[in-house]
Specification:
Helices cover about 60% and strands about 5% of the residues. It is mainly α. The protein has 3 domains: about 90 residues, Fumarase C, Chain B, domain 1 (Orthogonal Bundle), CATH 1.10.275; about 240 residues, Fumarase/aspartase (Central domain) (Fumarase C, Chain A, domain 2); about 60 residues, Fumarase/aspartase (C-terminal domain) (Ribonucleotide Reductase Protein R1, domain 1, Orthogonal Bundle), CATH 1.10.40. It has a two-stranded antiparallel ribbon with strand order 1-2. Strands 3-4 form a two-stranded parallel ribbon. The protein has a two-stranded antiparallel ribbon with strand order 5-6. It starts with 14 loop residues before the first helix and ends with a helix.
């Protein structure tokens, strides 16, 4: 097959070198962006008079036919072509003749691939943001369902203070909202059009880059042609955003795995999103959560891969940059799959509220509230803290709880204790009194839910 770059050389390469150099096996994913971008380029060439309008129309009509045939499966990709750009141009020329050879006027594969990749990632960002919004809505709805149900809150994986399950879930809603903000911000820097930068130095043709950028939905063209073909910051930023999404999914997955275990039994996952064992009939494994946790590593690897590829590259384009695609393709597809399954898993889980409440009643997680009770009676906090610690020690030694100690036993530690201490350390009181902004009281959680829903309604990409 003739090479696109025949001319100065006889373009004869070893078959092994051809295979090593080829990217069509993976950059064929960019067919829609490549054809759409080529249609806009043909239109620009026509309106500027670089080619005739008749030629531009013929190019656009031919490209539309290729797009239709690829999407219908009528036109398979030719693995002998070096890349998707060569494939489209070759088919176009076969179909409409020499006019097809004019399509590449005033552009290079360098700016063409930069354009295709930006267009592809813009589409992926839109998809991911919509999935994140769906997940935030799902988590928020589940938080509203369990906004009154008490569970132990943890630090160091030790029972710490009583919270509600709804409050805990809303922490994840906040994380995923930040992910939405990051992707929206990433999109702004991604939405700059490189086409017209050509190989690196621009072109001698009087092109209209603003027209072409606007036609493709970009905010503006890039201002420096060298940067236009060599910039892959948007790939790094995209994968960094993906990595943070996966970090949040992984943390959530870890808790779901713990909560679904017999040791916790705080939640029950739907059979639709668990698997069994080939040998142990009693098993109900949280495989979807475990896979999300496991796939986090591969997305981190995608990010480190592209960072490493770029770290020593001189300007402008280098063939190393062909390695950008597989990492961003994998990162995008992995995040999309994980978000899609995660929302469904959360939507169908149920909380075992009695188990949560029983766990909260153990571990002296109302000890801080007892100290606060003493402070409100006039003691300094450090003195109150010490007394509370001494009381907990007595309870542990005598296998008692704060609720089962008699008032006489309390008074052995301080005369300020009165019968109202039992109300102060009741778990419902402990939760309802957490009225500070962002706290675990029902009214606070309701405010968080209301605010998150308002933010979701206002999000536009």
């Amino acid at each position: 097959m003739a090479k696109m770059w025949e001319g100065v050389s006889n373009a004869v390469t070893d078959k092994l070198a051809d295979d090593f150099n080829s990217s069509i096996s993976f950059d064929c994913k960019l067919y829609k962006q490549d054809i759409t971008g080529s249609m806009a380029h043909a239109s620009m060439l026509g309106v500027t008079g670089i080619i005739t309008q008749e030629e531009a129309d013929k190019l656009i009509q031919g490209l539309e036919g290729i797009l239709t045939d690829v999407e219908s499966g009528k036109l398979p990709f030719d693995e002998n072509c070096e890349d998707i750009h060569m494939f489209v141009e070759q088919v176009l020329t076969e179909r409409i003749g020499d006019v097809g050879k004019k399509l590449h006027t005033a552009r290079s594969r360098n700016d063409q691939v930069a354009l295709d990749l930006r267009m592809y990632l813009k589409d992926q960002v839109t998809t991911i943001v919509n999935l994140l919004k769906e997940l935030v809505e799902t988590v928020t709805n589940k938080a509203e369902e369990y906004k009154c149900d008490i569970m132990p809150g943890y630090t160091h994986l030790q029972r710490a203070q009583p919270i509600t399950f709804g409050h805990h879930l809303m922490a994840y809603a906040m994380m995923f909202l930040r992910d939405v903000e990051r992707f929206n911000d990433c999109y702004k820097r991604m939405n700059v059009c490189p086409i017209g930068s050509c190989a690196l130095a621009g072109t001698t043709y009087l092109t209209d880059r603003v027209y072409e950028a606007e036609k493709l939905g970009f905010d503006k063209p890039c201002l420096n042609s060298i940067d236009g073909v060599s910039d892959r910051d948007f790939c790094v930023e995209f994968l960094a955003c993906c990595s943070l999404v996966m970090a949040h999914l992984s943390r959530f997955s870890e808790e779901i795995i713990l909560w679904a275990s017999w040791e916790f039994k705080f939640i029950t996952l739907s059979d639709e999103y668990t698997t069994g064992s080939s040998i142990m009939p009693q098993k109900k494994n949280p495989d979807m959560a475990e896979l999300c946790r496991g796939k986090t590593g591969r997305v981190y690897g995608d990010l480190m891969g592209i960072l490493t590829v770029l770290k020593g590259l001189p300007l402008a384009y280098n063939k190393d940059m062909q390695e950008d695609k597989e990492s961003v393709f994998d990162g995008a597809e992995t995040v999309i799959k994980c978000l899609s399954i995660f929302s469904k898993m959360i939507k169908t889980l149920t909380a075992n509220t009695e188990n949560m409440k029983n766990a909260a009643s153990k571990g002296f997680i109302n000890a801080t509230d007892m100290a606060d009770y003493l402070v409100k009676k006039g003691l300094a906090f450090r003195s109150a803290y010490k007394i509370s610690g001494q009381i907990v020690k007595k309870c542990i030694e005598e296998n008692k709880t704060l609720e089962t100690l008699s008032l006489e036993e309390y008074k052995q530690f301080s005369d300020v204790f009165d019968s109202d201490v039992y109300q102060a350390i009741d778990l419902k009181t402990c939760v309802s009194k957490r009225i500070s902004l962002g706290g675990t009281s029902v009214s606070s959680v309701e405010m968080q839910i209301k605010e998150v829903r308002k933010i979701l309604d206002d999000i536009n990409l």
